[in-house]
Specification:
CATH architecture: Alpha-Beta Complex
Number of domains: 1
Distance between the termini: 20 Å
Largest sheet: 6 strands, mixed
Strand content: 35-45%
Low-confidence stretches: none
Radius of gyration: 15 Å
Helix content: 10-25%
Strand order of the largest sheet: 4-5-6-7-8-9
Number of helices: 2
Structural class: alpha+beta
Length: about 150
């Protein structure tokens, strides 16, 4: 499990109230999004990826549409490498969602389409980061944050 304090990035969020709802500005999509618990985790994760992990916001895509078994799905966050190939897939869940096998199976299904070497799953409190092991067709999870996110 990776020790990541996503809540330390709350100060980076731009939140407003309109139509009796709270909205958060998504710096990737460049628009306000209704602030649901999962959206809060997604936005905090985006800021962590930029400000802590050092990824360029130009290489991050949020809510990417993919086709999986003929069905349209949306992946939370994709980080691309300099060659614009998927590098890291991030699945975000609301804080009250347990990161169980079903969540990891969902991520694995997306991985079959995206084929990124790294994956991350978080509910804002618990975070796992792994790397695809092509020999065993499994993921090797890191005990902490891997070197690619160290500045």
């Amino acid at each position: 499990m990776a020790e990541i304090d996503l809540l330390s990035f709350v100060g980076h969020l731009k939140i407003k109230e309109a139509d009796q709802k709270k909205w958060v500005f998504d710096i990737i999509r460049k628009k306000y999004i209704i602030l649901q618990p999962e959206e809060m985790v997604r936005q905090l994760c985006v800021h962590w990826l930029i400000h802590e992990a050092g990824f360029s916001k130009n290489l991050i895509q949020v809510e990417k549409l993919i086709v999986l078994n003929g069905l349209k799905r949306r992946f939370d966050i994709v980080v691309y490498n300099q060659d614009t190939e998927p590098f890291l897939l991030v699945e975000c869940k609301a804080p009250d969602v347990l990161l169980n096998q079903k969540v990891f199976d969902q991520l694995a299904a997306y991985q079959t389409v995206m084929n990124a070497p790294y994956l991350m799953v978080t509910n804002g409190q618990t975070t796992y980061i792994g790397k695809m092991n092509h020999l065993s067709k499994t993921y090797d999870f890191f005990d902490g944050v891997p070197n690619w996110v160290q500045k």
